[in-house]
Design a protein that fits this description.
Layout: H1 5-12, E1 30-36, E2 39-46, H2 51-68, E3 74-81, E4 97-104, H3 112-125, E5 130-134, H4 142-145, E6 154-158, E7 161-165, E8 167-169, E9 172-176, H5 191-203, E10 210-216, H6 223-231, E11 236-241, H7 245-259, E12 267-277, H8 294-302, E13 306-312, H9 314-322, H10 333-355, E14 362-363, E15 371-372
Parallel strand pairs: 2-3, 4-10, 4-11, 5-9, 5-10, 11-12, 12-13
Antiparallel strand pairs: 1-2, 6-7, 8-9, 14-15
Length: 376
């Protein structure tokens, strides 16, 4: 069988890339098509640095050629992302921090903070230098989860400037509003006050050299999220959900927030928490209390990676309450679970940094809510 290049180009004219009005041939996205017998190589140039658009374009090309040209065609798609020359950086990066990962959830109660804490200690066990910013202003939980709720950050002088020194626990650097309020005190702040406090913890702290900063975001899609993305160029986002339909509906909104064209933060993947229950006396049994593989199926539907599932284990809750994240339990099921998930997060971060340019911080506008920063 010999493939015809003209037939392939005609088939590709039926595909439109998300966000563009013209088909991929007319728009110039198809840079080249080469055929070798039953093999075809398509070189594609995209101008939108979004992982889901890249994945969708590749899938559409393969599906269309198989349907319209030959089901036996062997297809390779090479995708290159080209963005306009960037002369100015909007939003302030933190010197010395290589990757900033936002951990989010569409709703509360899905274990996002627990997952963040266990990701952090697992990264540290792998040899990475890690920091955690507890951005859940109204419900900070990191001080409890790392057994440092009675600690107070001290002021140090760095290059002639006064800086906060993050609290360290299990080799993790941590800052949280919980360090500055009494345990019984409610934080009753409007958005601008919360945003100012976050900016101080981000930029007025001596974080030092970090491979990863994990930001534990509050539930939902609101003002704190926009403030963080306005202040920092986020490397990528991880969304945590439980399997039931109610949680998945909100997780879908969480993913959609990061994927919006005017925000455009790469989604590294979805983690399914409370995926199943296995009794200690019946280690081979799995009971899917909240439904089975809901977050995994959502990840497939949204074309984002599925990073793994965390079972319901009593020790995870107990460890969080006692201030020693469960992933620190050596030779345990939980340690293995979080090692696999963390490896996937690291791999997706590496993939994202290899294939996409640095994320831009966004700016808040009065009328539209948020918009991409224009770079000259």
């Amino acid at each position: 069988m010999k493939l015809d290049r003209k037939e392939i180009l005609k088939a590709l004219e039926t595909i439109t890339i998300a966000g563009e009005g013209k088909n991929m041939v007319e728009s110039g996205a198809v840079a080249n098509v080469i055929t070798f017998g039953d093999e075809v190589v398509v070189d594609l140039v995209l101008h939108t640095p979004a992982m889901h658009i890249k994945k969708r374009a590749e899938d559409d090309i393969k599906k269309t050629i198989h349907e319209l040209v030959s089901p036996e065609a062997k297809i390779k798609v090479n995708i290159k992302v080209e963005t306009p020359e960037k002369n100015e950086i909007k939003g302030r990066a933190i010197p010395g921090i290589k990757n900033i990962i936002a951990v989010a959830s569409g709703k509360g109660g899905v274990g996002k903070s627990t997952v963040t804490a266990n990701l952090a200690v697992t990264l540290a066990k792998m040899g990475f230098s890690v920091g955690v910013l507890d951005a859940d202003i109204y419900g900070p939980s990191m001080p409890i989860m790392f057994d440092v709720e009675n600690e107070k950050p001290v002021s140090i002088t760095v290059d002639g400037k006064s800086k906060m020194k993050p609290i360290e626990s299990y080799e993790i650097k941590i800052l949280s509003i919980g360090f500055f309020t009494a345990p019984s005190q409610a934080v009753i702040w409007r958005g601008p006050m919360a945003a100012k406090a976050l900016n101080q913890m981000i930029f007025d702290a001596d974080w030092g050299e970090l491979d990863f900063m994990l930001i534990d975001l509050p539930p939902g899609t609101g003002d704190i999220h926009l403030s963080i993305m306005q202040s920092l160029p986020i490397t990528g986002a991880v969304v945590v959900s439980t399997p039931q339909a109610v949680a998945l509906a909100d997780a879908k909104k969480g993913v959609a927030m990061f994927m919006q064209d005017n925000i455009n933060v790469p989604v590294l993947g979805i983690i399914e928490n409370m995926a199943y229950f296995t009794p200690e006396e019946l280690p081979d049994n799995k009971y899917y209390i909240f439904g089975q593989e809901g977050a995994k199926n959502l990840a497939e539907d949204l074309n984002v990676p599925f990073l793994g599932e965390v079972p319901i284990v009593q020790s995870i809750r107990e460890a969080g309450d006692y201030g020693r994240p469960a992933a620190l339990q050596t030779a345990s099921v939980i340690e293995t679970v979080f090692e696999e998930i963390t490896r996937n997060v690291v791999q997706e971060t590496v993939n994202r940094n290899h294939s996409l340019p640095a994320t831009e911080a966004i700016k808040i506008t009065t009328m539209a809510g948020c918009s991409a920063v224009k770079k000259n």
